Amino acid sequence: MADFEQRYRALSRQFHPDYFYNAAPAERRASLEKSSYLNDAYRTLRNPISRVEYLLKLEGMAPKGPEQASKQVPAGLLEEVFALNEELDEVRERRASGAPAAEWKGRLERARQPIEAKREEHEAQLQELSARWDATGDHHVLEALRDRILERNYITNLLAGIERELNS
């Protein structure tokens, strides 16, 4: 990462539009474009999740839409999604029937705990797998990263659903 930062800064200085203010219009425009591309690339590669998603696209391993993504999610996680959706339905029914907020919010908080723990586990796995990919470039590691990213997306959606219910 230190090398990445150093290269970014060097290229940023090389292409920064401020150094081209007296140049011909075409050179100024080229500098602005290169600087913009460089900044976009830096933001993408600096963020671990967007970096993995970009690598998956480069390698042709990104899911080709929601249907393919749902086929690649492990059955165990889908079972948790199903169970959580049932819990959310029950909470909505309790809320609609006039149950005290403390009761149904408590159920939501309890439902969130295992999903939050799974999210933390996935974040650690993503970091470890990313480090292995950087060290080896092993295609199997990239496949594992793809699986973790797909699962992460499901987990993020689950947590967002819980948050929506808590805030409604």
Notable traits:
168 residues; mainly alpha; 7 helices; 2 domains
Order of helical and strand elements? HHHHHHH
What is the first-to-last residue Cα distance? 41 Å
Alpha carbon gyration radius:
22 Å
The helix content, as a percent range, equals: over 70%
User: On the 0-100 scale, what is the average pLDDT?
Assistant: 87
| Secondary-structure class | mainly alpha
How many strands appear in the DSSP assignment?
0
- Percentage of residues in DSSP E strands: under 5%
Low-confidence stretches: none
User: Largest sheet at a glance?
Assistant: none
Number of domains: 2
Shape descriptor: elongated
Count every helix, treating DSSP H or I runs of 4 or more residues as helices: 7
